[in-house]
Amino acid sequence: MVNLFGLYGNGVALSERTLDYLWGRQNITLNNIANVDTPGYKSRYMTFEDTLAKSIRAAQTAKGEQAVAQAISSNRPSIHITNAESTRLDGNNVDMDQEQVDLVKTAYEYQYMVQSINNDLNRLRASVKGF
């Protein structure tokens, strides 16, 4: 993607990173669904929002926009294993209802972020046409 730092600050970089994380979250959810019948499989989930927000807040108070850009690019998501006890005899704890809700939620979040980036780029195109 073209670096639009000078035009949009860190907004596009944050949106791009969020899209990457949401793509990863969707893959983890799909992996859980694929392993619904695997004996002993424990479902996984990914978090990134809290650590990303903390990194950005720390960078903002300390060093400014370049530090925020570094915080965005260096942040990594956390993958966790669900330790909830299984009600199944085979030890698998994948809850298909919850996985399907997570899948739809992530798809909507992804779609929203893509639309946000498209809106930013459309505003840029409109402003350039004026020249």
TrEMBL record:
Residue ranges of every copy of the Flagellar basal body rod protein N-terminal domain listed in the record: 25-42
Protein's cellular compartments: Bacterial flagellum basal body
A Pfam cross-reference name: Flg_bb_rod
Main location: other
One Gene Ontology cellular component annotation held by this UniProt entry: bacterial-type flagellum basal body, rod
Keywords: Bacterial flagellum, Cell projection, Cilium, Flagellum
Protein's GO biological process: bacterial-type flagellum-dependent swarming motility
Family: Belongs to the flagella basal body rod proteins family.
NCBIfam families: FlgB
Function: Structural component of flagellum, the bacterial motility apparatus. Part of the rod structure of flagellar basal body.
Subunit structure: The basal body constitutes a major portion of the flagellar organelle and consists of a number of rings mounted on a central rod.
Protein name per UniProt: Flagellar basal body rod protein FlgB
